[in-house]
Design a protein that fits this description.
heterodimer, A: mainly alpha, 23 helices, globular, B: alpha+beta, 7-stranded antiparallel β-sheet, 7 helices
Chain lengths: 464, 333
């Protein structure tokens, strides 16, 4: 099982980054899960920048250095701080955690469902070789290019399409051992899913509400298309997982007011920007919401933190331009420009045959009746409409804004930018995953807190 | 159905021989067998399989549409239960089409049919039941869209419509119960309960359809996983595994595929990594790697994997392992 090497390298790097940035949560399951995401982002970003900005080959020495460097830097930084007598942050741990949700008779079926789906996804996902295809097999192919460190000009476009995280993370063990095991691409996707669930449950437990964590896990696993995608080597589910992890911390920030939760969300969105071509757009829009919330309080440290994340994102974009050139680095910009200029693609409304259902109908069908999203888009608006004051209180409002921005972006893409794929009901479902997962997480948190009477009291009297 | 009667309704793209065993046909590549009889709900076929064959059943819509209903046939005697009501666009006037792909010989030794109900209401119920309980069908398009969850196929009522209506009604009942028992509108708990039931039902329904087609055996051998788990193109997986076993990792491999086959050659090349690999689907065309990354001339190839191609094996190569006459591995002499 050489994939264990990948887990160790990614988590070691991630824990190093978290400790260096003082973003550990104090709950070890949550920290390990968070380290997996952050380590993936770090390795993807650093390998990409080193390879294409500095010309450093992606080879064993580079990889070992990237895996160990954050930990070593963190160790040195902490030693320096100890010498200066600065107190270390103790983290949120220490309190007796309650792992089992109550009442048991309600949560036993939920936990059983979660466990069943996870087992099915892990087995089917690990058993299924890469076989899905949309014409080019880039999702699982770019790690092979990374393992060979061979980037002929015709391959650079694939790198932009796949993104650095799906490209470099599956290649970690291949590079270290010199052996290509195709299934590592599957294992990375499965590890992402497990990390998301551990993060949700672990943070729920650490926050004294395992009910919330289990409900979140149940919520995301009730999205049929998401569950199916986790068994493939496509990266749509992976992007949704990274964004979902960021939303969990947005909810944590809204619950605790701890600014480091918002910073964690921002770091996770930076990692999400490195997944797929669409990742940077999705992460940027959600990132604006998180950054705006952070900067609202006008703390100097937060301004600095946002600037550091923005600088890292700029570094990524610079490396991308260095890899493929300016035009190819931002293909969505030219697509947006041509669409804004009035260009219609085949199948768009102007070329629809008479009698074809309209775009809005097709989009509504994808949301509500296609069987791909489960009940999320029925329940989310229902919950907000029935309890508007609770939903719009600060605690849930800004994470809801996070979800709303993603939804508007997906809707614009489905109805305006790429209508043909909504009319023919193809990629519209994939593009919705990145909304559905955060929406399910938000809804679960909102409903559980509402059911347990944990919603904060209204500022003025009256019921929701 | 007596075999002699069956022989009169079979219309195949290859000759069908009436032997002592039954109706026999040789399959090489793709073969279609039409059964010229209408109104069939289910087929039960006793067959004897010799070779590697996959069977897809559909109705004569002119095009096999998702959800694809297929099964890789085990070698030897087998009894197949084909629920035709689960196929796309079933109608009382359509005839079943059996598509066989692979290489081998199939002998149909017995065939039993169950006719669909003639009463329209009963037929609608049967169609709705069949579609509702049908397992998910994994195919090329599943990555873009799952088979719609329909409460009623004939009336096009989505499961979500039913769950949403039931959920709204349940919410009203729970709120009323809360008001009667506690004089309070317990909106939070009621909403949570309804959401739990609705999402649980949708999720459980998906599981119900997905688990039957999921590969849930623990298989540590990755070669076996490649060989057996190309669900809807089993020969691609089997040939990839065969080539991986026969060709050293240092070989440069050329994959020659069938014209317009966008899936097989790429997938074979992908699975042959770390071997250098390039493919072509047109005779004389340049060999290109996956997504056009890398080029190769045929003279540079150490080995050839040929899959469903009518192109002849280039000179200087000799077969070293074969799955079928149109699916084999060759190396330079």
């Amino acid at each position: 099982m050489t994939f264990a090497l990948t887990i160790v390298a990614v988590c070691a790097a991630g824990l190093g980054v978290l400790r260096l940035l003082r973003l550990t949560t104090g709950s070890w399951p949550a920290d390990v899960a968070l380290a997996w995401f952050v380590g993936s982002g770090w390795l993807g970003l650093a390998a990409f920048v080193l390879r294409f900005l500095a010309g450093v080959p992606f080879a064993t020495p580079t990889l070992v250095l990237l895996a160990l460097a954050p930990g070593l830097a963190s160790f040195a930084f902490r030693a320096w701080r100890r010498r200066r007598g600065t107190q270390e942050h103790a983290g949120a741990g220490g309190a007796a955690a309650r792992w089992l949700p109550r009442p048991t008779w309600v949560y036993a079926p939920i936990a059983t469902y979660v466990a069943l789906v996870v087992v099915v996804v892990l087995l089917h996902g690990a058993n299924t070789p890469t076989q899905t295809d949309d014409g080019v097999r880039v999702r699982a192919f770019t790690p092979m290019l990374a393992a060979e460190d061979a980037w002929p000009p015709e391959s650079r476009g694939l790198l932009v399409l796949a993104g650095p995280v799906p490209t470099f993370v599956p290649a970690v063990a291949w590079t270290l051992t010199g052996t290509i095991d195709h299934f590592h691409v599957n294992y990375v996707v499965l590890a992402d899913l497990v990390a998301l669930l551990v993060l949700a449950i672990g943070l729920g437990v650490a926050g004294g509400s395992p009910e919330r964590g289990w409900a979140m896990a149940f919520g995301v696993l009730s999205i049929p298309f998401f569950v199916y995608h986790c068994t493939s080597t496509y990266q749509d589910a992976v992007l949704a997982i990274f964004v979902g992890a960021a939303l969990i911390f947005a909810l944590e920030h809204a619950r605790t007011g701890d600014r480091r939760d918002a910073l964690r969300a921002l770091v996770l969105l930076l990692a999400a920007a490195l997944v797929k071509r669409e990742g940077e757009i999705v992460a940027a829009s959600a990132g604006v919401v998180v950054a705006a919330r952070l900067l609202w309080e006008r703390r100097r440290a937060d301004v600095l933190a946002v600037a550091v994340v923005a600088a890292a994102a700029a570094l990524f974009l610079a490396a991308k331009v260095a890899a493929v050139g300016l035009d190819a680095a931002f293909p969505l910009v030219s697509l947006l420009a041509s669409r804004a200029g009035g260009a219609f693609t085949a199948g768009a409304p102007s070329t629809q045959p008479p009698g074809t259902p309209g775009l809005l109908w097709a989009f509504g069908y994808a949301l509500l009746r296609s069987g791909n999203t489960g009940m999320i888009y029925w329940l989310l608006p229902a919950a907000v409409l029935l309890r508007p004051r609770a939903a719009l209180r600060a605690r849930f409002a800004w994470p809801l804004a996070f979800v709303a921005v993603l939804f508007l972006e997906a809707a614009a893409s489905a109805v305006w930018l790429l209508p043909q794929f909504t009319l023919n009901q193809t990629t519209v479902h994939r593009s919705l995953l990145v909304v559905s997962v955060p929406a399910a997480l938000w809804l679960a948190a909102f409903l559980v807190d509402g059911a347990y009477g944990r919603l904060p009291p209204p500022a003025a009297g009256g019921a929701d | 159905m007596p075999l002699d009667e069956l022989a009169t309704i079979v219309d195949a793209t290859v000759p069908v021989a009436r032997t002592a065993r039954g109706l026999e046909l040789d399959v090489a590549g793709r073969t279609f067998v039409d059964l010229r009889i209408t109104g069939i709900a289910t087929l039960e076929i006793d067959a004897d399989v010799d070779g590697d064959l996959m069977l897809t059943w559909s109705m004569n819509t002119g095009l096999v549409l998702p959800p694809m209903r297929y099964q890789t046939l085990p070698r030897g005697p087998v009894r197949l239960h084909l629920d035709l009501l689960q196929t796309a666009r079933w109608s009382p006037s359509s005839v079943p089409v059996l598509a066989l792909e692979g290489s081998g010989r199939l002998a149909i030794t017995a065939l039993r049919v169950r006719m669909a109900p003639e009463d329209p209401a009963e037929l609608s119920d049967a169609l709705d039941r069949a579609a509702f309980w049908a397992p998910e069908s994994i195919g090329h398009t599943t990555i873009n869209v799952l088979t719609p969850a329909l409460w009623s196929t004939t009336r096009q009522i989505a499961l979500e419509d039913v769950l949403a209506s039931t959920g709204a009604l349940s919410l009203c009942v729970l709120l009323a119960a809360g008001w009667v028992l506690r004089r309070r509108l317990l909106l939070g708990p009621a909403l949570a309960v309804v959401a739990l039931l609705c999402t649980g039902a949708a999720g459980a329904y998906f599981l119900l359809r997905f688990v039957p087609v999921a590969r849930l055996a623990f298989e540590p051998d990755r070669e076996a996983r490649i060989a057996r788990n190309y669900y809807f193109t089993p020969r691609v997986g089997a040939l990839a595994a065969l080539a991986r076993a026969k060709l050293p990792e240092s070989d440069r491999v050329a994959v020659i595929g069938a014209r317009n086959d966008w899936f097989g050659p790429q997938t074979l090349c992908f699975n042959l990594a770390p071997r250098r690999c390039a493919f072509r689907t047109e005779a004389g065309a340049e060999l290109a790697g996956i997504s056009g990354v890398g080029r190769m001339r045929l003279e540079e190839a150490d080995a050839i994997v040929l899959y469903r191609s009518t192109q002849p094996l280039p000179e200087g190569f000799v077969q070293v392992a074969a799955l079928a006459p149109d699916a084999f591995v060759a190396r330079r002499r």
